Amino acid sequence: MVSGQPYSILITDDDPAARETLRDVFEPEGYRTFLAESGEEAIDIVKDHQVHLALMDMHLPRLSGLETIAIVRQMKGIIPAILLSADRDDNLLRRALSENAFCVLAKPVSKSVVIYVVSKAIQKYYSN
């Protein structure tokens, strides 16, 4: 929690079922969630709301997850970002690290893994 408010997670995926599944994982854990179906929508949410962490699908229409992360960082500075991709390879891992992504998780991601990684990222970036 930040000043009594729950941490907020931006979940960006062009698949509505994937967005809703992740929301259903994190809201019972006490997180506030924002859902976006595109990089552009994610950028608009970050402009208008405090976002503590981004869960970003790599393959989105128009802007990729990495491109979206880069734009968000230009606007807001470092926000921990976890990239989700069904085709995780060494090239993607290198590109994600160059954009300072916290990590890349292979889709489909398990509930326990995504909760663990998000909690580690929040702890790393926000614990005093």
UniProtKB/TrEMBL annotation:
Report whether Zinc-finger shows up as a keyword of the record: no
| Residue positions where 4-aspartylphosphate is found in the record | D57
| Origin superkingdom | Bacteria
Presence of keyword Nucleotide-binding:
no
Q: Which SMART domains match?
A: REC (SM00448)
Q: Which PROSITE patterns match?
A: RESPONSE_REGULATORY
What's the name of the protein? Sporulation initiation phosphotransferase F
- Which lineage ranks, top first, belong to the organism behind this chain? Bacteria, Pseudomonadati, Planctomycetota, Planctomycetia, Isosphaerales
